[in-house]
Amino acid sequence: MNMEDYKIRLEEVSFFYGNFQALNNINLEIRPREIFGLMGPAKSGKSTLLSVLNRMCDLIPGARFTGRIWLDDEDILSPDCDVVNLRRRVGLVLSKPVPLPRSIRENLLLAPRLAGKKDHQELEEMVEKSLKAAQLWDEVKDRLNDSALRLSGGQQQRLCLARTLAMEPEVVLLDEPTSGLDPISTAKIEETLFQLKKNYTIILVSNNTKQIARATDRVAFLLMSQIIEIGDTPKVFTVPQDKRTDDYISGRFG
Amino acid sequence: MDRGKFVERVLFLLALSSISSLVIITIFIFEEGLPLIFHTGLKDFIFSSHWAPTKGHFGIAAMIISSILVTLGAMVLGVPLGLACAIVLAEFCSERLRGLLKPTLELLAGIPSVVYGFLGVIWLVPLIRNYLGGPGLSLLAAAVILGIMILPTVISISIDALTAVPDVYRDGSIALGATQWQTVHRVVLPAASSGIITAVILGMGRAVGETMAVIMVAGNALKIPTSILDPVRTLTSNIALELGYAAGRHREALFATGIVLFVIIMILNLSATLLARRK
Description:
The structure holds two protein chains of two kinds. Chain A is of the alpha/beta class. Chain A has helices spanning 46-53, 83-89, 104-114, 120-133, 137-140, 153-165, 183-196, 209-215, 233-238, 243-249; strands spanning 8-17, 20-30, 35-39, 63-71, 74-75, 90-93, 171-175, 201-205, 218-223, 226-232. Chain A has a six-stranded mixed beta sheet with strand order 6-7-8-3-9-10, sandwiched between helices. In chain A, helix 3 (104-114) crosses helix 4 (120-133), helix 3 packs parallel to helix 6 and helix 4 (120-133) crosses helix 6 (153-165). Chain B is an all-alpha fold. Chain A binds chain B through residues 54, 56, 59, 84-85, 87-88, 91-94, 96-102, 110-111, 113-115, 160, 163-164, 167, and chain B through 166, 168-169, 171-179, 182, 186-187, 190-191.
């Protein structure tokens, strides 16, 4: 397998919460610098899949997994994996993006400081760079010391994206990044994703099939913990191979 | 009048009576104590350390200093211990273990203070006398006993403050590449800080007001201590020790001491309430 072919590769990944199987034998390859979409009805395993990719799933009591996940050439499910370092490489923007009750600047400085960065100049540049990447800079540049909780919902969502970018990850995982946002904020976030694609590999989970169709390059459809179909987004949305995919994207169930 | 209205009135009267007892106590202490403060002058009363009530000298500075030192000592010992305990229980324990340990620690608050004093006299005082010198009955002994006595207050309120921090803050921090300890130290503790400060202040109030255990282990000598091994007499001890035989001006002076204590505790509780509300 050539290194350039994939950024992340899942081999026979299964995941259990206690007795409930949340992922069933998932095989998947994510290419470098693509936006990969995960869609499916509620409880189909989308968010679980994201949480396995940076081992946030470890926080859940009773969770266990089998299989292998390669990030470049490192197996991140192996017991030797340094999960803290993994989470710095694979940034997750949570589905409920809640900034810390501190200033905008402090929110952005958290991750670099956790990684041990101290240089003042470098940190200030990081604030500006990550806010620009999340398309938030122009709106907040004059009030970086204001509380992050005073921002609007869409701005908070982009701030959480920015604070993930501030740790300079290689892969960005987004769980429902536009749930509860108005169409204008949603468009801004999607525009942001297109810009980020130049430098990052992005995995986007969404309940909104229209958003998946607009924003992603390739897509996987999950149903009841299994992958039903994987393919280029335009193709999956025009000529789905499986009837269940067709039913889902045309809104007949789910 | 129907039954519901009647019950409502009775409950209202009962509630009113408990509040009025606070008002009555306040009025009583001030009425009994204020004449002496006017007589001696507030400055002499608080800043003179000459306490000879039978000869007309009413200066409580030595006791104020002793009370402050004993309280500070209790804080130095009790706060780090209590806070560490709260962090372990709230952040690093399974829910089941916490459910078992927290009520157990709260039982500490139910032990009568005379029992703490008794244990202090039996174990702690001889230990200090034999290994550190001095009479044993000392500032240090009082601080240690009070440090243990404030633990349940500090731990219980700190745990409540820590568990009130939303889990999304923790998850967000872990997702940003923080270890569990970094999450506690950089995210959870700052977010819980006002609650933790409230816990410390309420612990302080308890330490300032405690009387029985302190009388038993502090030695009760009337002077400004020069070492932690010196015996001390706190404001509360002085009232309890002398009220039995005090009369006239002397009695008034003890009530005036009560006013000073009352004001200190009111300030502590008020700042705890204000801090808790700020959140």
